[in-house]
Amino acid sequence: MTGQATSTDYSDEQLAIQRVVREFGRKEVAPGAEERDRTRTFDYALYRQLGDLGLTGMIFPEEYGGTDTDTLTFCLAIQELSRVDMSLAITMWVGVIGARSIVTGGTEEQKATWLDSWILPTVRGEALSGGAITEPDAGSDTAALRTSAVRDGDEWVINGAKIFISNAGLDNCRFVMVLVRNPEGGFELIMVPEDAPGYTMGQPLRKMGLRSSDTRELFFDDCRVPAMNRLGASGEGRRSVVGSGFMLTRLYLASQALGVAQECFDLALGHAKGRSAFGRSISRFQHVQAMLVDMALEIELGRLVRDRACWLHDAGQPYAKEAAMTKLFCTEMGKRTADQAIQIFGGLGYMDETPVSRYYRDIRAATIAEGTSEIQKHIIARELGCFD
Ligand SMILES: Cc1cc2nc3c(=O)[nH]c(=O)nc-3n(C[C@H](O)[C@H](O)[C@H](O)COP(=O)(O)OP(=O)(O)OC[C@H]3O[C@@H](n4cnc5c(N)ncnc54)[C@H](O)[C@@H]3O)c2cc1C
Predict the structure, then answer these.
(1) How far apart are the first and last CA of the chain?
(2) CA 180 – ligand 1 centroid, Å
């Protein structure tokens, strides 16, 4: 693949994986998506099937049962899953990050300790994890977070609260990676097991979209975990999460937006061709065509910027600017595209019986999570040298 990769440059393997996930999505995921959204329920058996298909193991090395797949291919899988169920797709990529962080950044002792309980079950789709950074008084401004961790002998003692945390309340969530402040003012990334004493959580938060994904407030009240549960070097927690972790997950969320946008376009085009008004199909009206043209063009542009950012990441080149551009463009584009799809569907688009209304609610979170659009603009401006 070249640095200027376009969708026509996808390898046969990438196209095959995209096709397999698309077929799985249509057959197994799509039929219950509306019901899961309406009842705000998570389907554990369906998640397990993602493991059987190999999706949850894609970003793990082969020695852990994974397939060590490149970033673009994983993004294509996320994109296809998001075409039918954005909640399931976000649960998956958030769910595998924790175990993947242990594999890439953990000590040999940590990898051995958590191999059978966390890593292998995550690869198989039997378990997952969450990442807890946001606090009631510190969202975009991650440096302001106050949850503290203090060493007491062989343990960390954690106090504080986190909010809007994905996955933590699911029955198969084994641990959360929690970003905390140490007494010196530095940041640590600490693995908190589901059964750690002093760790509790609130009821699922009621959301406008992504309703079959779990989102909660977490509480740490003299929560004790072993000293070995800190991942990475002391004081480096924020740098590893905000500095590099978010860069990659921004590509994942952008890929979700691309999937939603593509599905909205396909549904809108199909509806426009089949719906008649004033004696002709509405796809023949220029104003409707303009919406479809804008949608198609923006999806193509989004793919180009996403594909290139993936390539830069896998080539080991700097990609902070490209990751932020991808996240900003694709998520804002996804939002616009879902809006245009509703417009093309007319009154029907506003009704729950068409999936576009769910996509419109679901995609709204994408310009907020993993760093808001305004924060992405700040990062791009910084990378352009505006602050130098
Ligand atoms: C569905 C969903 C799932 C989530 N899952 C997780 C999760 O698993 N783990 C986790 O830790 N968090 C999670 N979050 C939280 C998410 O990361 C935060 O909501 C996000 O970082 C924004 O923080 P905030 O909500 O506190 O908004 P604030 O930071 O208060 O921002 C409010 C507004 O001010 C703007 N603003 C703030 N600072 C600046 C600035 N410097 N320049 C310009 N504008 C600025 C923002 O862009 C925004 O428009 C999730 C959120 C959602 C919606």
Answers:
(1) 34
(2) 17
